[in-house]
Amino acid sequence: MKWNELRPGLSVRIADGHENGYGGRCGKVVAVGTFEGFSKRIAALVDIGEELPVVIDPEEIEEDDSPA
Predict the structure, then answer these.
(1) SS3 assignment, position 14
(2) Alpha carbon 49 to chain centroid distance?
(3) Mean of the pLDDT values across residues 1-28?
(4) Can you list the domains of the chain with their CATH numbers?
(5) pLDDT, tens digit, for every residue of 36-52?
(6) What is the average per-residue pLDDT within 51-68?
(7) What is the Cα–Cα distance from 30 to 42, expressed in whole angstroms?
(8) Cβ proximity of 56 and 66 under 8 Å
(9) For residue 16, how many other CB atoms are within 10 A of its CB?
(10) Exposed site from 24, 51, 54, 65, fewest CB < 10 Å?
């Protein structure tokens, strides 16, 4: 996705094979912006139902249009 398409509440899917080990997982965008300690300028904070949300590059997520 492009960073300007991301918005809080959007259902997304992390790209298969993502380096963080959460590839293929679905979740909701919590926030979009810059995050301290993260290498990219803009990223999305995504709640995937784990203890902590994960920070993902916009290019590594897609909108999740699967039925809930």
Answers:
(1) strand
(2) 12
(3) 90
(4) 3-62 (2.30.30)
(5) 766 656 788 899 998 88
(6) 84
(7) 14
(8) no
(9) 9
(10) 51
Task: Report the C-alpha gap between 49 and 8 in whole angstroms.
Answer: 15
The proportion of the chain whose per-residue pLDDT surpasses 90, expressed as a percent, equals: 38
Q: Which amino acid is at 16?
A: D
Of how many residues is the chain composed? 68
Whether the CA torsion 45, 35, 37, 51 is positive or negative: it is negative
Residue with tokens 């203890």: 51
Beta-strand ranges (E) seen in the chain are 11-14, 26-33, 43-47, 54-56, 61-63
Q: How far apart are CA 17 and CA 37, in angstroms?
A: 22
Inter-CA distances, 15 with 4, 21, 54, 56, Å: 18, 10, 13, 10
Question: Amino acid letter at 21?
Answer: G
